[in-house]
Write the structure tokens for this entry.
Amino acid sequence: MKLLDPDLTFDDRMMLCSLLSLGCAFGFSPPQETATLTALRALKIAQRRLRPEVRSKLLSVSSPRTSASLEPDAWRFVFFDPGTSGKSRAVTVAARTSSEHPDTVEAFSGQKAEGSSGLHVISQAKWVIDSDAALQKVRGDFKCKHVVSAQYRLQRAGASKDAFWLIEFFGDKDEVLIRFRIDAKSGDLRQLHEGDE
């Protein structure tokens, strides 16, 4: 029901105005437009929380398991930070934003990041393929039937290698149905089989 709806009576309009006023008085606001942040957009938010010398030293990007929409609710960034005891800093950014809270940082820690050993700094200039484009590439080339969730990870496994997205799709019994590797620079896509990385 909208306030300017021509079918509303005067009494209906008055009631809507009263409800909106009451909601504003108690701190409620009308529903806000929500959007999902891609990994690259969330990275810009995470970098604002870091010292300038750490911002370019990204080691990995990951998401928790998604819902059936396959869009992450949060992004976790791990940066190399020699100034901390664990040599890394993790920043988690909420991927679901609203116009009211556009850059919610959920967690900020300097603890040793699990699984960061063996990773190399990702050249952000060579990170061209964003998370949404990686998902679109997979959806365009493969039919992912019976998928209920996905998990994303961006990393660079070797000093002479480029960064890549690893996207895993899960079924309703928590089993991995299919895995893909997408080159973060060229967008080259390949399906991974058991034992591949």
